[in-house]
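Input.
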Amino acid sequence: MTAFEKSAGKIILINLKLAYSTCLAGFAWYIWPTDNPEWWGLGMISIFLGLAAFSLTFTALFDAAKVISKERETGAYGKRGERPKSAKLAGDDDLKQAGMM
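Output.
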């Protein structure tokens, strides 16, 4: 990502990661065996899905922090310079005075 690149793609990716993490966490909660210890395998799968959701959530939050810090740095860099101003168009007299005609 360059200094002046728009971060819309990164933001969409962060949102997709958070949505996927929510789906994983919901599925982990849904398949958790509550009444029968015979289904202990689903408990293991549920634990792994929960860990994956937890990891993916922190990855998305870390990516969001990187995007925010990059936006702040870019904004601070943009505030350092002066406002753009237009230059005066050189006329014939200016060109003669400069020795160009």
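The helical segments are 8-30, 40-80, 92-97.
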